[in-house]
Design brief:
The protein has a single domain, classed as RbsD-like fold (3-Layer(aba) Sandwich), CATH 3.40.1650. It is globular. By secondary structure, it is α/β, with parallel strands linked by helices. It is built from five helices and six strands; from the N terminus they run H-E-H-E-H-E-H-E-H-E-E. Helix 4 links the parallel strand 3 and strand 4. Helix 3 runs parallel beside helix 4.
Length: 143
């Protein structure tokens, strides 16, 4: 165990996060997301945290991951199929955790495509629909 590090940040997840560079994406996805297929096709790391919710994992990841401030968006959720303006409970939770960063949304297959370019996918045990979020890593600057 490490001090001041969430126990949800397993060695595999910490390695994936530390290996990411500016502009790389990571996906935190629910139990229903086709994470094994998407990760395999992308050549991305697949990290499973089956006993955890997506919001809990997002909060842990945000405790160590700087988000991108160069582009208009650094976080995306999946739109509800058939009702792009709907905001399901997991997305409300993500918005609260992201604070001022904002959360854009992507159509289902566009979300799959962007997740397919991620460096890592973290599959949670969240059974709520639309408990999926993509994050883009930013930079830590000394200036």
């Amino acid at each position: 165990m490490l001090k001041n590090i969430s126990p949800l940040l397993t060695p595999e997840l910490l390695f994936a996060l530390a290996s990411m560079g500016h502009g790389d994406d990571i996906a935190v996805v629910d139990a229903n997301f086709p994470a094994a297929r998407v990760a395999r096709e992308a050549g991305a790391a697949l990290i499973r945290l089956p006993g955890q919710g997506s919001g809990q994992v997002l909060q842990a990841v945000l405790s160590v991951l700087p988000l991108d401030t160069f582009d208009a968006h650094c976080a995306w959720s999946m739109q509800v199929v058939g009702d792009a303006s709907a905001v399901p409970p997991p997305v409300l939770e993500f918005r609260g955790l992201l604070g001022g960063y904002g959360l854009a949304s992507l159509e289902r297959f566009a979300f799959y495509a962007q997740a397919g370019r991620a460096r890592a996918l973290v599959q949670t045990g969240d059974l709520r629909k639309y408990a999926n979020v993509l994050l883009r890593k930013g930079v830590l600057a000394s200036d």
